[in-house]
Amino acid sequence: MPAPTTTRTRHRPGSVRAGGAPPAGAVPSAPTTAPADLGAAPERLTEELRRLGGDLAAVVGRARGQLRRGWLAVLAVVAGVGGDWWRPAPGSARSTVARLRRGLSPLPAEQGVVWRPLPWRRALAAGVVAFAVWTLLDAPSLLHNAEGSPLGVRRSVAMSLLRPVAAVSDGLGLAHLVGAADTLMGRRGPGVVQVVGPPPARAPHRPRSAPRPALPATDAMAPLPAPTVAAPLRVLVVGDSLGVDFGGPFADTLAATGVVDAAVDAHVDTGIARPDYFDWPAELQADLGRYHPQAVVVFLGANDPQNMVDGGSAFSFGTPAWDAVYARRIGQFMAEATGAGARVLWVGMPPMQGQGLDDEMQHLDALYQSEASAHPGVTFLSSWTVLGTPQGGYAEYLPDATGAPVTVREPDGTHLAPGGAARLSQVAVAAMDRAWGLSLTP
């Protein structure tokens, strides 16, 4: 005689099984929840997903039908006049999702949570209001970014739209609120100004080391006096966003010598090509009066491959006329620094991952090197093999002194990783020693 079978039916905790008490001989079991039916879940899930796919296919078909009827019908639908072609049929996709929720997971509704769909018009209105508030609050920054974008129709349209909004924002003082919030969150804007030097706390009775004799320089200028603790070498570092990457580690490397005071003034999205966006000659003039540097180290140019305006005329990048105007600006920048009695170390742009930008950087480096050779007191340092392969190709990793790989570039293929900035800093200090007769390198 076959053994009696035991039948279990799924029920909610605390409910009574159909039929009252369990039949004689049945094995008692704890109340089951959703996991007890996991054996049937894959089949049910497959069936529900198949039905959901059919519902979506029907919606897409109706959408194509609306498109075939013309764009006016589509616009009417968007405006809320054109019917409910996009809605699933009753009991289809929406109910399918509900069935999946009920069958495969604990329902939020069972926990006292009620889900209410948000009408699309209300969601759209909320998004528009949020976008308008953000635009009003950040309009001055948006306008500043638009001014720095490449010349063209897009820039003109953006500036025309943002100027009145920025004026309203400034008039209401909203920009001050944004600035205060940025300060509270530790944001200091796109510019980096850093001044570092030897530790100021020193024992007064400690004897000072005798100054080392000045070594002959190789740049046809009078030799720099050997820096000491009492009279440290004053160095100014200027640059764009790559200058931000490089400037801090370079200034720290110089300060570690104990005989250098370094100041870093770097601003992202800037360059020589667009003084209407950021006037580097004026910034350099102010820095020269503020820091009185004996040496200026320049690391910028990544943003300069773009069209520019000079004297009311527009010049396209890559043309001989553009090269002539840009070279003149470079020369004037160099002469501004040397005219104040400072030497200049112009660090060339490194290899770039993108072939187009890489070609543009090589083109600019040739102009930098040519102008440096024509201006006494200016030294050009190529970073091509410092931050690239021996052949000058792009490299994300390079070996350190022990042969271990070090990340030298950021994932964007443009900026310097800390390892790359440290590597370039060491080479730049050695270049200063060679060109200016110093002994900063240990």
Which structural traits does this protein have?
single chain, 442 residues, alpha/beta, Rossmann fold, 44% helix, disordered N terminus
Within the largest sheet, what's the order of strands? Answer: 1-3-2-4-7-8
What's the total count of β strands? 10
Largest sheet: 6 strands, mixed
What's the N-to-C terminus distance? 97 Å
Helix and strand element order: HHHHHHEEHEHEEEHEHEEEH
Give the fraction of residues assigned to helices. 40-55%
Q: CATH superfamily of the largest domain, please?
A: SGNH hydrolase
Domain module tally: 3
State the CATH architecture of the largest domain: 3-Layer(aba) Sandwich
CATH class descriptor name of the largest domain: Alpha Beta
Mean pLDDT: 75
Structure in words:
The protein is α/β, with parallel strands linked by helices and 442 residues long. The chain folds into three domains: 34-111; 120-184, no CATH class; 191-198 and 214-436, 3-Layer(aba) Sandwich (Rossmann fold). It is 44% helix and 11% strand. The protein is built from eleven helices and ten strands. A hairpin with a 2-residue loop joins strand 5 (308-310) and strand 6 (313-315). It is globular.
